[in-house]
């Protein structure tokens, strides 16, 4: 039977099939896979996933069961992971800079590349934090504009930049050791050392004349004839032989040998020759602006900029020098066209694809120049404290303080800089900010050319010479006094419509002063005063000076000017309050037409539309709008900035007919008027009332006269009260303007910025300041004179100070010190009351000056001038033997013996005695004797003056020549008073050859000053030492003394020259050391002068650097809120004085006290270090009058509600908040530098809270 094969059937369960079903998504489609398994789906199963609660998980794992953490297990406590050793990683360094480069060699004609040459590169490892060179690589792009306080500035021009060779030479020099002076005698760490000084051997007993000294080799040759020739004639073989004896009296003991020795040894060394005159370098080159520039367009066929008018001669001269890349100083009157020079420099820089910086003294002027230059050139940027527009432009306009900050911070903008234009350079006379101009001029690099624009100043050449020597480049001075529109100056005495014609010409357009007009104004004023007295009584005041009187004066004046078509007019009033009062009092005056009113209205609406609603309703805005509609305007620092700009723009359009302004308006751009009126010629300068200076008057009067519109400008001075004195008017109108004077002073910011750079020294900055220029301009001449004296000193023979002459140097120094001590005592006597009382007519004195040597004299008259007192004195003298002073021969130098030094060895005439009358200064009186003569000073002076007449002198000389003189002169004898006085003086001189008794300053004159008493004791001690000197007994004393004296005089002159060339002669050096000691005490610098962290923070501050840094490091600001910090810091920038008030929160009150405490601590440190500023003065610089205003403003209060919190004008409030925002930004940067992110964030918030609404409304000039 056949077996059937069993078939294996699949299991009945589908799950047992070798297939898997997969559901694809949610579409209902399935797919079979040849893989056994359960069905699957691509969709997730169950609930949607959720992330675990991290907080609960962290609490469960780390807090509830800390044993879970691995660090609590001990099984891995000894476990370590072996680090893989890789010694080669130690050899991996950053790539070194490439030391060389390939330079293409081109054909000089075709430019074809012929090959390449490897050239070595210098300064390849420089950086902005290690080098001042322009070859260093640029910094980060974010810091290219403002720089960084940690970066070095570029090397200032005019200073010798040390090269690598110089540095290596300097290092070698520093390594050199003087093995005679620089060796240490005490090893480091030891208390005692070894004294290597030579042991002193006992000197021979004084008073013994050793035989060896007498028998030294002497040249005994020569006869009496030769000796007499050598002694008597100064022009002998050597020209320097004189008698050794100081007087013709014979020696007390002398042998023939000693006489011969004295005559032969009395060799006089010629006095030190004056150094040869050294030709001075000329750095300031005056340019003749009177001759026309006929070949201007031939020299510049394609000028960089062209105007619609023909430039003036001085403008063409300046342009020619700009084309040669010269630096120029243009001094001209206001509105003369100095801006043309600046415009050409900007155009030239754009042509050269370089950059120009235009600096101005005030922010408002920067905004106005930005508007003008942007309309002209287009590519113009603006940098101010709160605005930064187009910083990449080729022409940047900024204030001088910002340029100083960029220079100190090493801004890369300086690399591309070709010109720096300083406008209104005469602002350097400003006491507070003038130092900024000097700092910037000193710090500018060498490749930058300088353009200085200034009003006319009398010392323009001196200032340009300083800059030329500073930068070692010639400065071309282009100065013109010509005005494009001549001025006429008037006095106005009217005060009513009847007297509105009282206008009197005082100074015409040709510069002639009319006294006739002045007296006419005086008569008109006097006539009105007499009529007023007849009407109201003589005791009635003629002028109250109140608003009512001012209103009558201005109504009559403006009516007269309006009739004569002399509007618009600028009225300069030197008080903000009076400006507002005068404008508000003219309520009935309307000077605009309906079309002008419409134009003014539309302009106001367009400008005020950028303000929020409440700001448009400010009282000042509404009041100014009403005035502007009537053609009136007000311009001073109390006006809101946007309103001042509106007034300026409407005035430039001719829509403001009368503008009441303060002096600041004259500093603005060229906005001339037809007429300028001075409300008064007196102003308050911050300390007292005074007349206007000529420079101030010229600056403001220069606004009169519009070029191309008016033939002349009119300047009117109001005479509300009496007419000013003619001399005062003449001095103000025709006097010389104020000179440019240095206001250089040391600031902590300057010191710290220079201390952090090793290559720059503060002493170098002080040397180059304008204040040190008079004493430093002859430095090169001093150096050459010092070299000549050094050469001459080395050629001199050393004096012999051995043997009996061993104390010769001490004898010389004792004599010099005695003379100096007596001069000091005499100076105190002259300055004392009792001393001046003793110097009355008849007092006998000892006279010692260039013409008289210890001659007796009697005082005839004493001048009443206490500042420079002059004593007219009759003095004994020799009878003149020749009328020609050159025939008298050279004076023989004296060798002082003890009798000459200790006493006053009086002058005795050799032959007939004569007299003279001299006007003596206090320093010419060597001593005041106890003798008083009865003299008739008037008779003596009358006789002397008669004999000085040329006719009388010629007759006397003729008689003397013919008859021998003495007999004929008896025919005209002097007055008996003269003869008696001369005989008395001669008798005194003969009776007291060593000098008559003198007044003792302590006992007779009752001078109890310590210096006088100590000086008298020292003088007696020196006299004893001089009397005991043994060198005078040596026969070689005269010759050796003269050698020593010449040597000492040359050394003294060399020391004086070295002092003038050294840092010790700097006027501000003591203050510098005091300020450095303050910084060292506060921890800003260390003992070696290295700037520490606090010092680097202070460098980032623009003002109050010490106080702000101390507040930051004391954490006095960190705990406060941003608005509280801003309120406290307002005390550092507020200009209006006042109390902070009792309405402040307790936190602010405590903060104010803490700020004052920190300021007091700093002030005490300054006083302890020797600075002159007292603690009260330093703390008094803080004004907390706007603390509440700033606090509420930062909290969001509208500006309209701030007016009730303080009486400060709105413009000053705005200025305070703007400066406060700049300070907050400085503190923000400083906080980031220190690593205080919390404080930095708070300062950022504070600045944001302050920057809103009308306070920070954008300038109309920048729109």
Automatic annotation (TrEMBL):
GO molecular function: ATP binding; hydrolase activity; RNA binding; RNA helicase activity
Region spans: Disordered: 220-249
InterPro entries the UniProt entry points to: Beta-barrel_MTR4, DEAD/DEAH_box_helicase_dom, Helicase_ATP-bd, Helicase_C-like, MTR4-like_stalk, P-loop_NTPase, RNA-DNA_Helicase, SKI2-like
A GO BP entry: nuclear-transcribed mRNA catabolic process, 3'-5' exonucleolytic nonsense-mediated decay
Keywords associated with the record: ATP-binding, Cytoplasm, Helicase, Hydrolase, Nucleotide-binding, RNA-binding
Catalytic activity: ATP + H2O = ADP + phosphate + H(+)
Name of protein: Helicase SKI2W
């Amino acid at each position: 039977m056949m077996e059937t094969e069993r078939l294996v059937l699949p299991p009945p369960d589908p799950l047992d099939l070798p297939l898997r079903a997969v559901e694809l998504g949610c579409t209902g489609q399935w797919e079979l896979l040849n893989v056994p398994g359960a069905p699957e789906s691509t969709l997730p199963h169950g609930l949607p996933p959720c992330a675990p609660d991290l907080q609960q998980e962290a609490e469960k794992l780390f807090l509830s069961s800390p044993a879970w953490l691995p660090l609590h297990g001990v099984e891995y406590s000894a476990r370590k992971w072996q680090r893989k050793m890789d010694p080669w990683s130690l050899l991996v360094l950053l790539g070194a800079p490439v030391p060389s480069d390939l330079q293409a060699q081109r054909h000089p004609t075709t430019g074809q590349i012929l090959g390449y040459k490897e050239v070595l590169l210098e300064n390849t490892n420089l950086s902005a934090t290690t080098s001042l060179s322009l070859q260093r690589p640029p910094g980060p792009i974010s810091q290219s504009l403002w720089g960084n306080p940690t970066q070095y500035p570029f090397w200032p021009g005019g200073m010798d930049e040390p090269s690598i060779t110089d540095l290596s030479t300097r290092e070698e020099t520093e390594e050199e050791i003087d093995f005679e002076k620089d060796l240490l005698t005490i090893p480091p760490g030891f208390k005692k050392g070894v004294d290597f000084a030579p042991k002193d051997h006992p000197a021979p007993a004084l008073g013994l004349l050793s035989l060896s000294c007498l028998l030294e080799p002497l040249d005994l040759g020569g006869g009496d004839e030769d000796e007499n020739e050598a002694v008597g004639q100064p022009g002998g073989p050597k020209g320097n032989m004189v008698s050794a004896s100081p007087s013709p009296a014979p020696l007390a003991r002398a042998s023939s040998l000693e006489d011969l020795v004295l005559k032969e040894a009395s060799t006089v060394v010629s006095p030190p020759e004056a150094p040869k005159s050294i030709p001075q370098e000329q750095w300031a080159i005056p340019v003749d602006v009177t001759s026309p520039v006929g070949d201007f367009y031939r020299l510049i066929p394609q000028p960089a900029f062209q105007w619609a008018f023909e430039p003036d001669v001085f403008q063409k001269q300046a342009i020619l020098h700009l084309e040669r890349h010269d630096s120029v100083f243009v001094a001209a009157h206001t509105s003369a066209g100095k801006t043309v020079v600046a415009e050409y420099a900007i155009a030239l820089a754009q042509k050269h694809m370089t950059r120009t910086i235009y600096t101005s003294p005030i922010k408002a002027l920067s905004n106005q120049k930005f508007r003008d230059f942007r309309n002209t050139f287009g590519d113009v940027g603006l940098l101010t404290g709160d605005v930064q527009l187009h910083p990449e432009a080729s022409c940047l306009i900024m204030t001088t303080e910002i340029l100083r900050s960029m220079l100190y911070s090493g801004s890369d903008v300086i690399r591309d800089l070709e010109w720096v234009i300083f406008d209104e350079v005469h602002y350097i006379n400003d006491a507070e900010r003038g130092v900024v101009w000097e700092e910037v001029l000193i710090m500018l690099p060498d490749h930058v050319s300088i353009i200085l624009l200034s009003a006319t100043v009398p010392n323009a050449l001196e200032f340009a010479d300083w800059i030329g020597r500073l930068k070692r480049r010639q400065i071309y001075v282009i100065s013109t006094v010509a005005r494009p529109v001549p001025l006429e100056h008037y006095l106005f005495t009217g005060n009513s419509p009847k007297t509105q014609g009282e206008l009197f010409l005082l100074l015409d357009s040709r510069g002639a002063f009319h006294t006739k007009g002045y007296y006419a104004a005086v008569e008109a004023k006097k006539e009105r005063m007499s009529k007023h007295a007849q009407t109201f009584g003589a005791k009635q005041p003629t002028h109250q000076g109140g608003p009512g009187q001012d209103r009558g004066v201005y109504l009559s004046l403006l009516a007269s000017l309006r009739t004569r078509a002399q509007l618009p007019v600028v009225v300069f009033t030197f008080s903000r309050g009076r400006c507002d009062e005068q404008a508000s009092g003219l309520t009935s005056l309307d000077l605009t037409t309906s079309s002008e009113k419409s134009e003014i209205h539309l302009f106001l609406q367009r400008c005020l539309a950028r303000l929020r609603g409440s700001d448009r309703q400010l009282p000042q805005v509404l009041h100014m709008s009403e005035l502007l509609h009537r053609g009136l305007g007000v311009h001073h620092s109390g006006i809101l900035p946007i309103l001042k700009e509106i007034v300026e723009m409407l005035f430039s359009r001719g829509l403001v007919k009368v503008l009441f302004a303060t002096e600041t308006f004259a500093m603005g751009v060229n906005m001339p008027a037809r007429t300028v009126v001075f409300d008064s010629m007196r102003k308050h300068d911050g300390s007292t009332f005074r007349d206007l200076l000529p420079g101030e008057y010229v600056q403001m009067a220069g606004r009169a006269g519009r070029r191309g519109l008016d033939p002349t400008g009119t300047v009117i001075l109001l005479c509300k009260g009496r007419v000013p004195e003619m001399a005062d008017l003449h001095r103000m109108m025709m006097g010389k303007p104020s000179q440019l004077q240095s206001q250089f002073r040391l600031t902590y910011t300057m010191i710290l910025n220079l201390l952090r750079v090793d290559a720059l020294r503060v002493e170098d900055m002080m040397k180059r300041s304008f204040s040190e220029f008079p004493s430093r301009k002859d430095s090169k001449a001093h150096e050459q004179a010092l070299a000549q004296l050094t050469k001459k000193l080395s050629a001199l023979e050393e004096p012999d100070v051995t043997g009996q002459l061993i104390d010769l140097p001490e004898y010389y120094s004792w004599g010099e010190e005695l003379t100096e001590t007596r001069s000091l005592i005499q100076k105190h006597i002259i300055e004392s009351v009792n001393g001046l009382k003793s110097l009355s007519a008849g007092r006998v004195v000892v006279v010692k000056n260039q013409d008289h040597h210890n001659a007796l004299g009697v005082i005839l008259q004493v001048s009443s001038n206490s500042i420079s007192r002059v004593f007219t004195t009759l003095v004994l003298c020799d009878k003149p033997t020749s009328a020609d002073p050159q025939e008298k021969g050279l004076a023989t130098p004296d060798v002082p013996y003890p009798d000459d030094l200790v006493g006053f060895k009086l002058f005795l005439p050799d032959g007939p005695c004569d007299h003279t009358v001299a006007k003596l200064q206090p320093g010419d009186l060597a001593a005041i004797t106890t003798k008083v003569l009865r003299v008739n000073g008037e008779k003596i002076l009358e006789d002397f003056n008669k004999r000085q007449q040329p006719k009388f002198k010629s007759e006397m000389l003729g008689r003397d020549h013919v008859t021998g003189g003495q007999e004929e002169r008896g025919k005209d004898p002097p007055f008996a008073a003269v003869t008696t006085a001369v005989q008395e003086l001669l008798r005194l001189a003969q009776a007291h050859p060593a000098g008559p008794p003198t007044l003792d300053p302590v006992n007779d004159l009752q001078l109890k000053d310590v210096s006088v008493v100590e000086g008298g004791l020292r003088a007696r001690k020196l006299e004893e030492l001089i009397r005991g000197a043994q060198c005078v007994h040596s026969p070689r004393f005269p010759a050796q003394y003269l050698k020593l004296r010449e040597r000492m005089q040359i050394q003294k002159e060399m020391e004086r020259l070295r002092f003038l060339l050294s840092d010790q002669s700097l006027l501000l050096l003591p203050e510098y050391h005091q300020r450095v000691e303050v910084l060292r005490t506060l921890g800003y610098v260390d003992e070696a002068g290295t700037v520490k962290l606090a010092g680097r923070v202070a460098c980032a501050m623009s003002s109050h650097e010490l106080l702000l840094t101390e507040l930051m490091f004391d954490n006095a600001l960190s705990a406060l809120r941003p608005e509280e910090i801003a309120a406290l810091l307002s005390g550092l920038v507020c200009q209006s004085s006042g109390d902070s008030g009792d309405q402040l929160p307790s936190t602010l009150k405590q903060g104010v006290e803490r700020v004052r405490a920190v300021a007091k601590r700093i002030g005490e440190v300054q006083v302890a270090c020797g600075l002159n500023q007292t603690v009260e003065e330093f703390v008094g610089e803080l004004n907390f009058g706007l603390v509440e205003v700033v606090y509420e403003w930062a909290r969001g209060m509208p500006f309209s509600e701030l007016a009730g919190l303080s009486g400060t004008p709105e413009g000053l409030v705005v200025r305070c908040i703007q400066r406060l925002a700049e300070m907050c930004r400085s503190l923000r940067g400083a906080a980031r530098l220190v690593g205080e992110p919390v404080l930095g964030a708070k300062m950022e918030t504070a600045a944001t809270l302050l920057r809103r609404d009308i306070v920070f409304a954008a300038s109309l000039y920048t729109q």
